[in-house]
User: Fold this.
Amino acid sequence: MAQCEIWKKIDELKRNPELAGTPGYEFDYLLKKSDAIDWFLLLMEQPHFIPPHDWWFDLRSRCDLPWAMLLQKQPQFEQYVHWESVSRLELVKLAYMAPAIFRKHFPQGRPWDLYAFLTPMEKRALLCDLPQLESQVDWDELDREWENGDWMLLLSYQPQFEKYFVWSRIEKKPSPFWDILLRSQPQFACHCDPTQLDDWQIRRIRKRQGQLFGGDDQ
Assistant:
């Protein structure tokens, strides 16, 4: 079974947990074939699909797992965290998403001190998930650190931050990020020249936003 099919089945279990154990939805098979991040997303909605202890033990080498989001929704999984492998980005997010757990493990911790050590990409991910930190960041500094693509990715999640972005940088210009932005935020199409898009981008935009650029393209 292709990886995309595995992902679709796990995503289906979020909405229809009663499918577990039916043909094609066998627990052990899906757990073995799926990526841990996908299973984390499933556990956020359906915590009873808890993996065995050895599965959690094998995650010690993973530093890209969304622990903050999981513990915000399902704090009972705190017992499985291998704290040495939790990324600095996740620690900052944890301090705001699950503050009681953060204080328990880092009673002297000052999460904003870690912000200075985040990469530009990590800062973008932080604001995508925690837009309430808007007043705490230096937007001029971010503007110096980020490429246009970083801004477009952020705006695809948090369009209200356009007030910090100078649209003239990409106005009517080609970019590989137009389809990501416009599939989520079609209101920004006024800044895009469709003649600057390739056929693949237009197809992807039309599939999600059929009203743009000449109608639906299924």
Notes: Residues 62 and 218 are 38 Å apart (CA to CA). The two ends are 25 Å apart (CA to CA). The mean pLDDT is 94. The first helix runs from residue 3 to 15.
